[in-house]
Design goal:
Length: 699
Amino acid sequence: SDHMENICGYLMKYTNLVTGWQYRYFVLNNDAGLLEYFVNEQSRHLKPRGTLQLAGAVISPSDEDSHTFTVNAASGEQYKLRATDAKERQHWVSRLQICTQHHTEAIGKNNPPLKSRSFSLASQGSANSPGVQRRPSQNAVSFFNVGHHRLPTGKRVPIMQPDHLVDVREMMSQAEGQQRDLIRSIECLPASGHLTSLDQDLLMLKATSMATMNCLNDCFHILQLQHASQQKGSLPAGTTISWLEPKISLANHFKNGAAQNFPAEINKPASVREEQSIAEPCQLTREPEEINPDEELEDICDDKEDDLGAVEEQRSVILHLLSQLKLGMDLTRVVLPTFILEKRSLLEMYADFMSHPDLFIAIANGSSPEERMIRFVEYYLTSFHEGRKGAIAKKPYNPIIGETFHCSWRMPKSNVATDGGNNSSAHSPSEQGTLPKDPQGQAEPDYYTVKFVAEQVSHHPPVSGFYAECVERNMCVNAHVWTKSKFLGMSIGVTMVGEGVLHLLEHGEEYTFSLPCAYARSILTVPWVELGGKVNINCAKTGYSASINFHTKPFYGGKLHRVTGEVKQNMMNTVVCRVQGEWNSVLEFTYSSGETKYVDLTKLSVTRKRVRPLEKQGPFESRRLWQHVTESLRDGDIDKATEHKRALEERQRNEERLRAETETPWCTKYFLKDGDGWVYHKPLWKTVSAAQTQQTDSN
């Protein structure tokens, strides 16, 4: 047949997050049912760099654009490919599908597939229609007739063979097709009448059918892993099967400045900058502002996010939204409903991670490198609990580009642990020697001040920079984070891509660290948050490091919010401290001396941050910028909150369009691009260095 011709040519292949897209020479071998690729056409006579068996594969054009498509092999391997245009993509897709069907049918003749289940719509005029008579948990079942199949008797296969995996893959392909037909049948229903496409039971069916297919794909992947490792029989005793979340190596995390490898977002947050300054993004309005901590007042806002009322009332909207999403979809491309929002910006959420400033300041007071690393791990693990406002998982506002947040904390010196863990306010003069003295000769206050500033420095991708310092203790932390969210079926995953560095200037030490992933689970019922992934903390100067694992709940059994970790001395390869427990409850620290320490996070004192009143804040500061949305959410007026949010989004689009037309680059206010990261414009290490130079010159 003319359609079974062997074709070859160059396509772009997506390799990974770091490498991105690369040109490769592909060959479709119809006789063997193989898709092979080489580095280039000249190396075609060499061994292929990669080969996919097309029998049982699924060829899927992507909805990202008109050029991209994927080849999902029965083995679980996937190629994400991109043609030069839509015509070339159609040519490759059609030839691959024909070859796949031919070889799948050939295998099917030797191994007949199981009889598939059938779905059919009942007559819409039936007297049992859920629109006529509604009973709990009855509507979807009475509306759809589901025929089950039985496994053929007399056949027992002790070991899963490759052709059986092909059968499973084929059945799953049929199920996916039937699930798509199911959704189309529901969406074709009229918008009004006894039975509509927005019927709550049907929306539930759409959402749960997608979750079911996600679960089946997870189980199929487990079978593939078993077969690949040639496991025989059941899993070993004590084995737990974890949810298959996206696993991104922290070492390969996205670095700022490579945004061209990622699709542009559709959901663009908005700005309410004054109209007269829109065309002048680099004028004085973008100059750094020195915030006087004396103008800040103790925060009295206490917006706990434990109210499910709006979520319960808007459940049909959630179901309709979920039915439109695809697994793995980047949620920055989706406009999410207003009622699932927290009453704070993401920038303020980063500030709330600093709600235990006594533990933060105490890091610098450690008497040895080992003690300082252990104190940093203790502070790090206690920061996430207060960062969450209540047990209900809600989403903070997406910061607009140029948005900032300022606050500070005052911590009595007597409440900060010093050497050996005792609380004392005494510090030797040498500890303060590198800082300029108060020119007015005022008495030294009896409290430490920790200042915090955050700014949204990039829109494509969305990157936030934040910085905190305690001048009295010669310490500061600088970080940049890109939040990347994906839809995972009945949960949402957020990867916190980036890096932070803690500077202890008195000791000349730098501690690099990253952040775990976060997951919003059970988004159809009572959504809750869990953390997952492995993070590392390193201090190159001292040779101490910490490895921390945030464990997601296993598929079978296991505890919630579990965290384990250890602190090591790398030169000696010895563990000096182990930690285990729950990151939102009790942590247990076990030291090499045999001593054990328990930290109950629910009983830790929280220091309220200090924030300037709204009337003294600039138009770009988070609370003033989002004040109308926040007030409407507090009043329970979702429509009004949505209206204010939409106005901000539209303003942002207009400003971005104007910058593009005038080719005007965006200028950040407090953070500067530094290689792959972002650094505060006036960090403490520069201030201290300048003070030391000035002191040396005067001597």
